[in-house]
Design a protein that fits this description.
Pfam families: PRK. Keywords: Membrane, Transmembrane, Transmembrane helix. The chain contains 28 helices and 39 strands. It has 4 domains: about 5-225, Rossmann fold (3-Layer(aba) Sandwich), CATH 3.40.50; about 230-400, Hypothetical Protein Pfu-838710-001; about 460-525 and about 530-635, Rossmann fold (3-Layer(aba) Sandwich); about 695-910, Hypothetical Protein Pfu-838710-001, CATH 2.40.320. It is an alpha+beta fold and about 950 residues long. Strands 9, 10, 11, 12, 13, 14, 15, 16, 17, 18 and 19 form an 11-stranded antiparallel β-sheet that branches. Strands 34-35-30-39-38-37-31-32-33-36 form a 10-stranded antiparallel β-sheet.
Length: about 950
């Protein structure tokens, strides 16, 4: 794309209508810049912004400037930080340009002239100094030097980042709406009803939005709707006790790193609420200096001694509090919290004094439950743990009655009309992420909460009696109660964040109302996210997870029949569940997938302290298994939906259009026949919208080099206390549809990459972002069945290349070092992987790899070593074609394919590739010829008509 097109796209701002999202393929023929503006989700917007910056940086000389604007609490700062972590750019927060005491409107308090001077200096290649604002002292406290050579990209982050004064200096304009901004709007509208219009509500709680913020957002080229509200996926685990003698831990707080903060925390009750304390309906506002943070309700989970809180607090404007009070919200509780905190590794230790209570508390925080518990033991904290919030303590002292905790449910309180069986259960599937048309929207995109956001109250769990004959009194802890009382299914399906919260609440409800243990089953197709959900749930409630893969029969696994229900040792599973139900120790098998046999048994006992066990697997909700479980959870989506969308995209690129249902029946034949019918009966149904390509939360930073490194050097940079190593042998097969436009070359982005490792098949999602020396790719790969690979072959995918390798893996929990010996490479390649970019870079420097990195994929490296003809079409050496064909035949035979189902076009040879490419080009030429004919016909008709009209006039 030439410079004039780039300039036009970024000056005109594109077209103001919704359109289909472009392919995420990194094909060189597509340009993200030409597709703007786009209305997308947060994850997709992050991906598009990174790609847009990279594309413009290649085409433009000098600095690339980006503005990310939107209302307070929409998530714009989070987006800027995530992009900066990948690009390595400079972020300029507009809040540092406040002009002193913050009087008047927020817009008037911004020093635009200083910001413009800073941007102009950086654009002209000059170093500059940006101000630093202290929100506790409410004034500027100095400046920070920014060197123009530090980065080729600068991001301006702030509510008014798209203001008319700045737009001419910005190359890319991004608007972010949603987050707590939409959530608060929905919450207020829910609380006060339809007594006033949406515009009135906006003007009340966000008085500057419609006049000073919203008009600028329409000039954005990337328009992001952030649906995030709160999430327990990255929860904070807290242990809290009274600090009877603060001197006992005084040594921790005498360090120079100790930080002191003072907060004012307020809880606002809705205008229509009763005097009793329904604190989950309240709004929490925290003031820190001149900053205000808001969260909806007392969002937390209490499990044993732990208080578990989600990431749910966002900054809002200072006038939002006044607007809520004007709408009738009342400040029920207000107190001051003085905090002195110090970091201990990944944990935080705080002394917090609450003025209303007149007491000091010791609080230990962290993101991992086991780590927090272990640190508390190491520190010797012996005080009695408290699980009540400061709000609850204050309410108890005031004597306010509580309505949040319902009484225990007895059999007499369960009426027959509470039975809620699913008469005609419907399949749960994630819908394709299609963008709506503009005329379908009731409100402008900048302020229109979706229907799901307009229903902020989640349903609560209750029982539905499954046996009408038990009409009398039944003891809560008796086996008869356990057998007769069944959970009523939730009425709807939920996203992963709400589903995780409901799963934990369901477990706690069963623990309170039924006897221990509680046995949970989480089922769903391969790659749907059930394993991830199981471990996140277990981390919150502190329980064990057992995978149904442990129950594979060795004789079935040898034939790759992982997705066959008969491959499970059902008698052993039933015995284990029976032992767990009766409180007995049981022996769980441990299955070695590499050898295809059971390696040993491990002893498992569910203690009274935990009382929960989770079984997860494809068939966890099969009728033969779920009848023994207390809570049934179904998960769909994830990479399961990603692969279906990817196949649909590939088929459309070669001129063949298939419905998602047709693809699913071929690629996941077992799912519709043997898995989906069981999922519809679940108590809780979860739709996982996670896309491993787009999500910034799944980023893994990778450095790759072919420089030789000694084994001892690797050991020296890893933590010896946590060091472990392993060996893996794998084969990567690259599947590609014939006729895929690729200019005669094989690109990894055009292929579906399948890895065979330790007897398992995995889908490797690799559409990475390459930035400098780093490759940013998804953290994990996703298991699939052999029938899925066979289904791809039946849809016409052709095995065009394969790589055979062995990997030596060394890791210490922070970074992973992988030494790959490729069959067709003269020397091994070393990869350093980690979620922390700085840690990966430091490891590379310690191994003296700087200057030797490559961002090429292994496929690209192998292809560059081949002769030109083989590189272009078959992708493999001629002598390797037989081996690849042998692998394909084995997959088809084991995957249930018949020769008649297989396309003859799967023979791998250079001549077939040439013919397929020629046929593809001929089809494209035919389409262009048809279009040109139609256009010339219209043009000639217009000319003839015009000439006849002129002749008639004369």
């Amino acid at each position: 794309m030439d410079d004039e097109v780039v300039q036009r796209v970024f000056q005109e701002g594109g077209r103001d209508y919704f359109q289909q999202q472009p392919s995420t393929s990194t094909s060189s023929s597509s340009s993200i810049l030409q597709s703007l503006p786009l209305h997308v989700s947060f994850d997709h917007g992050y991906y598009l912004l990174v790609k847009s910056i990279q594309e413009l940086r290649e085409k433009k000389e000098g600095l690339v400037t980006v503005g990310i604007g939107g209302p307070s609490g929409s998530g714009k700062t989070s987006l800027a930080e995530k992009v900066a972590s990948v690009i390595g750019c400079t972020v300029i927060p507009m809040e540092n340009y406040r002009g002193g005491t913050d009087e008047g409107t927020d817009l008037d308090s911004i020093d635009f002239d200083a910001l413009i001077r800073n941007l102009e200096d950086l654009t002209e290649g000059k170093d500059t100094k940006i101000p630093v604002f202290d929100f506790h002292q409410k004034k500027r406290v100095g400046s920070k030097a920014i060197k123009s050579a530090m980065s080729g990209v600068v991001i301006v982050d702030g509510t008014y980042a798209l203001h008319a004064k700045l737009r001419s200096l910005l190359d890319i304009r991004v608007a972010v709406v949603g987050g707590v901004h939409f959530s608060l709007l929905s919450k207020v509208r829910y609380d006060i009803g339809d007594s006033c219009s949406l515009d009135y509500l906006i003007d009340s709680i966000f008085p500057l939005f419609r006049k000073h913020i919203e008009p600028d957002l329409h000039h954005a080229q990337i328009r992001i709707n952030n649906s995030f509200v709160s999430s327990f996926r990255e929860a904070i685990y807290k242990l809290k006790c009274r600090s009877e003698s603060p001197d006992g831990q005084s040594t921790f707080f005498l360090k120079d790193e100790a930080q002191t903060d003072n907060f004012i925390e307020m809880y606002l009750r809705p205008p229509s609420a009763n005097e009793e304390a329904r604190i989950n309906d309240w709004i929490k506002v925290r003031q820190s200096g001149i900053r205000y943070y808001l969260s909806l309700g007392d969002q937390r989970i209490v499990d044993k001694n732990f208080i578990i809180r989600p990431k749910a607090e966002f900054e809002v404007g200072r006038m939002t509090l006044g607007g809520l009070l004007a709408l009738g919200y009342n400040v029920v509780v207000s107190y001051k919290r003085a905090s002195t905190s110090v970091n201990i590794g990944s944990l935080s230790l705080s002394l917090e004094t609450i003025d209303t209570l007149g007491e000091t508390f010791l609080v230990l925080r962290g993101t991992d439950r086991k780590t927090v518990g272990a640190e508390a033991l190491r520190m010797g904290i012996t005080g009695q743990w408290l699980t009540k919030s400061y709000l609850e303590m204050i309410l108890e002292r005031k004597g306010v009655p509580r309505l949040n905790t319902p009484p225990l449910v007895s059999a007499t309180s369960v009426s027959h009309n509470q039975e809620k069986d699913i008469a005609a259960p419907k399949p749960i599937r994630t819908t394709p992420n299609l963008v709506s048309r503009l005329e379908d929207l009731a409100q402008p995109w900048t302020r229109s909460p979706t229907k799901s956001k307009m229903e902020p109250v989640l349903p609560t769990w209750h029982f539905a009696s499954s046996d009408r004959s038990h009409g009398g009194l039944v003891a809560t802890g008796s086996s008869a109660f356990r057998d007769t009382m069944k959970l009523a299914p939730m009425p709807d399906s939920y996203d992963l964040d709400r589903g995780l919260l409901l799963a934990v609440q369901g477990i706690q409800f069963l623990l309170e109302n039924k006897s221990v243990p509680v046995i949970v089953g989480i089922g769903g197709p391969s790659g749907s996210g059930k394993t991830s959900l199981a471990h996140k749930t277990a981390n919150i409630v502190g329980c064990e997870v057992v995978s149904l893969e442990s129950y594979f029969k060795p004789e079935q696994v040898k034939d790759f029949k992982y997705d066959d229900f008969n491959s499970l040792d059902l008698p052993l599973l039933s015995k284990n569940i029976g032992d767990i139900k009766h409180g007995r120790k049981t022996k769980i098998p441990v299955f070695n997938l590499e050898t295809g046999s059971r390696s040993c048994f491990k002893e498992l006992e569910i203690s009274e302290d935990c009382g929960v066990i989770i079984f997860e697997g494809v068939y966890a909700l099969h009728p033969e298994i779920r009848k023994s479980l207390d809570l049934w959870i179904a998960v769909v989506g994830g990479v399961h939906s990603h692969l279906i969308s990817r196949v649909q995209r590939d088929k459309s690129r070669v001129g063949c259009f298939m419905s998602q249902n047709e693809i699913m029946m071929t690629v996941f034949p077992i799912f519709q026949q043997h898995i989906e019918p069981h999922l519809v009966h679940a108590h809780l149904k979860i739709r996982n919208d996670f896309d491993p390509v787009l999500s910034p939360e799944s980023s893994l930073f990778v450095l790759k080099s072919n420089k030789q490194v000694a084994y001892q050097d690797i050991l020296n940079i890893l933590d010896s206390a946590k060091f472990c190593s392993s060996v893996q042998n794998f084969i990567d097969i690259y599947l590609r549809l014939p006729g895929t436009p690729a200019n005669g070359h094989i690109a990894e982005s055009d292929c579906v990459r399948v890895r065979i490792c330790e007897g398992r098949f995995a889908l490797l999602i690799r559409e990475p972002i390459r930035e400098g020396n780093f490759i940013i790719q998804p953290k994990v790969d996703f298991d699939i069945s052999i029938s899925t690979v066979s289904g791809l072959l039946n849809l016409g995918y052709q095995a065009v290349a394969y790589i055979e390798a062995s990997a030596l893996i060394y890791q210490d929990g922070k970074i992973l070092i992988e030494v790959d010996h490729l069959q067709d490479a003269p020397s091994p390649y070393l990869q350093i992987k980690g979620v922390n970019k700085e840690a990966v870079a430091a490891a590379g420097s310690a191994l003296k790899l700087d200057g030797s990195y490559t961002t090429k994929s292994y496929l690209q490296i192998i292809l560059e070593r081949l002769p030109l003809v083989e590189r272009s079409y078959s992708g493999i050496h001629t002598h390797q074609a037989a081996r690849l064909q042998e692998l394909v035949d084995s997959i088809q035979s084991q995957g249930g394919s018949t020769p008649s189902e297989s396309s003859q076009s799967r023979e791998v040879s250079p001549m077939d590739g040439i013919i397929e490419d020629m046929q593809c080009r001929i089809r494209r030429l035919e389409r262009w010829h048809t279009i040109n004919t139609v256009l010339w016909t219209f043009l000639m008709s217009a000319l003839i008509g015009y000439s006849l009209y002129q002749r008639k006039r004369q």
